[in-house]
Write a structure and sequence with these properties.
69% of the residues lie in helices and 4% in strands. It has 13 helices and two strands. The radius of gyration is 23 Å and the shape is flat. 28% of the residues are buried.
Amino acid sequence: MVLAGLVLIYLVGSPLVFLVISSFRRFVLNGSIAFVFTFDNYLETYGNPDFPQAVANTLIYALGGTILAVVAGTGLAWVVERTNTPLRGVFTLMAAATYFIPGMLMGLAWNALAHVRIGFLNHFLQTFIPVTEGPLDINTMGGMIWVFGTHLYPIVFLIMTAAFASMDPALEEAAELSGAGLWAMLRTVTLAVSKPAIVSAVLIMFVRGLESFDVPLILGLPAKIETLTTQIFEAATMHQPPQLGISATLGVLLLFVSAGGVWFYRSQTARALAFSTITGKAY
């Protein structure tokens, strides 16, 4: 246990400590490069007039993509595991294959398809719709959410597939025999028993949305839609000297938001026995 604790502290604790320390350091050019301890990074970051909009964009992007991914992934997992739909194995393979495509490539592909001026799909639709631009525009918040959600929903699918596969079907049969309809059975039995998995999927997707960089870089920056990750990138690469303290300050903010998500997950799943099913079978 001591060895495992030391390894964990090294792998997780040391980067976080360095991140926090870096948020209080700043370059000073006085004939040579030096670092000074200062609170100016926080004052400059939170006083930036573009900061509130970047926070709002990040939350909208993460929340919208999370909702899309959780709904699509959970729905497909339910079809595969809890119904007798034909070709369920094909659905599983196709869902997993989507995740194997790098996010950067996915963003570039959708940009080539649905760019408002040069998108191939827009050119095709313009043969039926009398417009000179569009009608699709992937360089919007809605387009970013679409690409993020449709790219990462396989994570939710895999989580929910495991949860549905381990559920005792007798619970749903009992609900049906008691007169519950499909939606009532889903709400009171299937999704209720799977609550820890759903909360886990929501947390993972939301944090992935907060830290997402490839889609905001490719689709957001051309439309001047900034998120916290693109601001971190700009501060670290587009200034001389690099504003690493500003980047670290934004990173600390993301760290606290992610920690809040972990607390929410623990609070929602604290009563572990409430989600246990005990039968004579291996469920």
